[in-house]
Amino acid sequence: MSLKTTCLTYFVAIFAVLLASRHVIDPNSSPLKHIVDLSLATTSSVPSNIISYLIPNHIGRHHKKKDNGTIGSICDDFPRGFPPPDPNTTSYLCVDRNGCCNFTLVQAAVDAAPAVSQKRTIIWINNGLYYEKILIPKNKPNITFQGQGYESTAIAWNDTANSSHGTFYSGSVQVYADNFVAKNISFMNVAPIPNPGDFGAQAVAIRISGDQAAFLGCGFFGAQDTLHDDRGRHYFKDCYVQGSIDFIFGNGRSLYENCQLISMANPVPPGSRNVNGAVTAHGRASKDNNTGFAFVNCFIGGTGRVWLGRAWRPFSRVVFVNTTMADIIAPEGWNDFNDPTRDQTIFFGEYNCSGAGANMTMRAPFVQKLNDTQASTFRNVSFIDGGDWLQHNIN
Ligand SMILES: *[C@@H]1O[C@H](CO)[C@@H](O)[C@H](O)[C@H]1NC(C)=O
Ligand SMILES: *[C@@H]1O[C@H](CO)[C@@H](O)[C@H](O)[C@H]1NC(C)=O
Ligand SMILES: *[C@@H]1O[C@H](CO)[C@@H](O)[C@H](O)[C@H]1NC(C)=O
Ligand SMILES: *[C@@H]1O[C@H](CO)[C@@H](O)[C@H](O)[C@H]1NC(C)=O
Ligand SMILES: *[C@@H]1O[C@H](CO)[C@@H](O)[C@H](O)[C@H]1NC(C)=O
Ligand SMILES: *[C@@H]1O[C@H](CO)[C@@H](O)[C@H](O)[C@H]1NC(C)=O
Ligand SMILES: *[C@@H]1O[C@H](CO)[C@@H](O)[C@H](O)[C@H]1NC(C)=O
Ligand SMILES: *[C@@H]1O[C@H](CO)[C@@H](O)[C@H](O)[C@H]1NC(C)=O
Ligand SMILES: *[C@@H]1O[C@H](CO)[C@@H](O)[C@H](O)[C@H]1NC(C)=O
Ligand SMILES: *[C@@H]1O[C@H](CO)[C@@H](O)[C@H](O)[C@H]1NC(C)=O
Ligand SMILES: *[C@@H]1O[C@H](CO)[C@@H](O)[C@H](O)[C@H]1NC(C)=O
Ligand SMILES: *[C@@H]1O[C@H](CO)[C@@H](O)[C@H](O)[C@H]1NC(C)=O
Q: Which of 53, 263, 353, 381 is the most exposed place for a label (fewest CB within 10 A)?
C-alpha cells in the first residue's frame, strides 16, 4: 500500500468512527474534512463512491480549469512576489510541493537554515500534504514553520514505536531545537490506529523537546500518543489536538489556550463503565520539577469514555481551567496509573469548568477543585515565563 493510500485509509477509518458516534462531530465541519480534501486531491486511485459518501461536495483542487477551458499551470495560484525580500529580523525559505519555489520538501528547507543567526528563519510552507519525517536538530534554533491553515497544510508520516526504536522516536516531526514556532499547519501520524491491546503501535505526530516553543492555529492528528510535549516551556493557542490514549503526554511545562481536544477513542455502549482513553499523561517525576500541563478556555469533545489524565509519573501535574467538557469524561475524571502511592504526590486540578463532563461530584478523592489563588498560577503565560520570550518569538 502506498503511503497516500495508507493515509486515506486512516482518514476513512476516522470518519467511520465519527459517523458511527453518538457524539457526532459533523464531518462537514470537522477539520478532517479539509484534510481529506487535501489527501484526495493528491490521490488518484480512490473509488468515487467512497469520495461521495464521505464528502458530498468534494471539489478536486488540482483540476481547476481556467474560464476559457484550458488547464492552467499548477503554479498559477502561487502568490506573486513571494518570498519577499528579507527584512532585518527574519529570513525566508519557501517550500511548495509542486515546485513553485525553492524547496519541495520541508526537511530540505530545515537543512538550508543557518545554524547560527541573529535572524529568525521563517520556513513558509504552501498548501499541501508533505509526506516526510522531519528532524529539527538542536543546532537549528529560531525556526518558524508558517503554513496556510491547519486544514490545508500538513506534514504526515507513519512511524510507530515498533518501526522507530520506540515511541519517543516515532514522531513525524521531531523538534530538538529551542525557540521553534509553528503557525497554521498540521502535524499528523497516519500509522494504523491501534486496536485495543496492540503492542508497539503508538505513533507520535510531533515530539517537542526544545525550550520556548509556540504553536498558533496548529493541528495535531494521531491516535495513541499524538502529541509528545516532552520537555521545555511550550505555548499552544487555537490548536486542534486529536487522539485516543494519552494523546498529550510528556514532561513539558505548557500552556494550552483556547484549544480543542478531540478524543477518537471507540464509542462505548450507553451505560458501559469501561474507560478507553486519556487526554493527558503528564510525566513529572520529582517534586523539584516545575513542569505541568495547563489547559485554559479549552473544549474537550469527541468519542469514547476517557480520563482527563493518567499519572504517568508520580508527580504528574495537570489542570483544566474554564474548560468545557462533553459527556465523554468518566465520572471519576482521572486515574492514578493504578498506583495508590501516587495519590499523595500527583496534582490534578479543575477550576470553573462547564459541560456534562465537568460534574465533579463523583471525582476520584485525589482530584482537587482549585480555588482562585491556585488557579491563578496556571491561568496565563506567566506559568511558562511567557513574558520573557513568547511575544519576541511569535512576532
Ligand atoms: C508506512 O507506510 C509505508 C507505505 O505505505 C509502509 O510500507 C510502511 O509499512 C508503513 N509503516 C508502518 C509502521 O505502518
Ligand atoms: C486561457 O487563459 C489563459 C489565462 O487565463 C491564457 O494564458 C491562455 O492563453 C488562454 N487560452 C486560450 C486558448 O485562449
Ligand atoms: C533595517 O536595515 C536598514 C538598512 O540596513 C536600516 O536602515 C534600518 O534602520 C533597519 N531597521 C531596523 C528596524 O533595524
Ligand atoms: C531561492 O530562489 C531564488 C530565485 O527564485 C534565489 O535568488 C535564492 O537564492 C534561492 N534561495 C535559496 C535559499 O536557495
Ligand atoms: C535566536 O534569535 C535571537 C534573537 O531573535 C538571538 O538573540 C539568538 O542569538 C538566536 N540564536 C542563535 C543560536 O542564533
Ligand atoms: C492563520 O490563518 C488564518 C486564516 O487564514 C488567519 O486569519 C490567521 O491570521 C493565521 N494565523 C497565523 C498565526 O498564521
Ligand atoms: C510490534 O513488535 C512486536 C514484537 O516484534 C509484535 O509482537 C507486535 O505485533 C508489533 N506491533 C505492531 C503494531 O506491529
Ligand atoms: C526535574 O528535576 C530533576 C531533579 O530533580 C532535574 O535533574 C531535571 O532536570 C528536571 N527536569 C525538568 C524537565 O525540569
Ligand atoms: C473564562 O471564560 C470567560 C468567557 O469565556 C472569560 O470571561 C474568563 O475570563 C475566563 N476565565 C479565565 C480564568 O480565563
Ligand atoms: C467561569 O466560566 C464561565 C463560563 O462558563 C465564565 O462566564 C466566567 O467568567 C468564568 N469565571 C471565572 C472566574 O473565570
Ligand atoms: C452531578 O452528578 C451528580 C451525581 O451523578 C448528580 O446527582 C448531579 O445532579 C449532577 N449535577 C449536575 C449539575 O448535573
Ligand atoms: C486555596 O487553596 C490553598 C491550598 O488548599 C490554600 O492554602 C489557600 O488558603 C486557599 N486560598 C483561598 C483564597 O481559599
A: 53
